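Notes to self, Probable 26S proteasome regulatory subunit p27:
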Amino acid sequence: MGIPMDDDIHAPTVASGPSSGGALRDVSKLSMSDLMQEKERIEAELSALSSVLNSHGVTMNSSLTTFDGFPRDDIDIAQVRTTRVRIIHLRNDHKEVMAHLEKHLHDHFARLQSAPDATSTNGTSALSSVPNSATNNYIADAGALGTPFARVNSVEPASPAHQAGLKTGDLIRGFGSVHWLNHERLSKVAEAVQQNEGRPLSVKVARKNESGSGTTELDLQLTPRRNWGGRGLLGCHLVPL
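result:
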């Protein structure tokens, strides 16, 4: 008689709760700065755990059994299952942190709107005259125009990135709807590229001036596509900051 097997051996055996074993602090009491640090900590661990799965040649959905239902002997099944469970917990933690970050941003823009004399850093009118219904757009704009989250490490000649005007050394502030708050160590950039093949994406860039002082803000249109003569859909290499 064969060894009884679970119907789905690669399914997590530990229920995914709202936090990872109590390791996450009470994020509702954290400041914006602390939330950003927690976000980076979680994303760094998720990246490391993803590397563990990659080292086994599996993903979150790869089967851990052979075609006839027996455990695969080419991987450490126990480690893979433990890693998957941890990833699920961390993803839940990440969602909670991002929800509180969004709340902080909503509150921030609400304060700006209620301040009649509020101005931006360059002296122009702030957001006080814009309807509350556009708050979500403010959040996206603030993210895209906020802290750079990636640097262009290289650009291939004649590639979609080259044709869009990207240059080595450019700092990415926004990539479609992806920004410094939600890029998840650039994984969301990869998703945006895959989901928008053949369609232009707005890429917000900060580029150092040739004089060496100051930067220029650019809004480029980049269309991911295949068959341009090189690898990938962009033809450029981004590294997280």
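- The chain is about 35% helix and 15% strand.
- Residues 32-114 form one domain.
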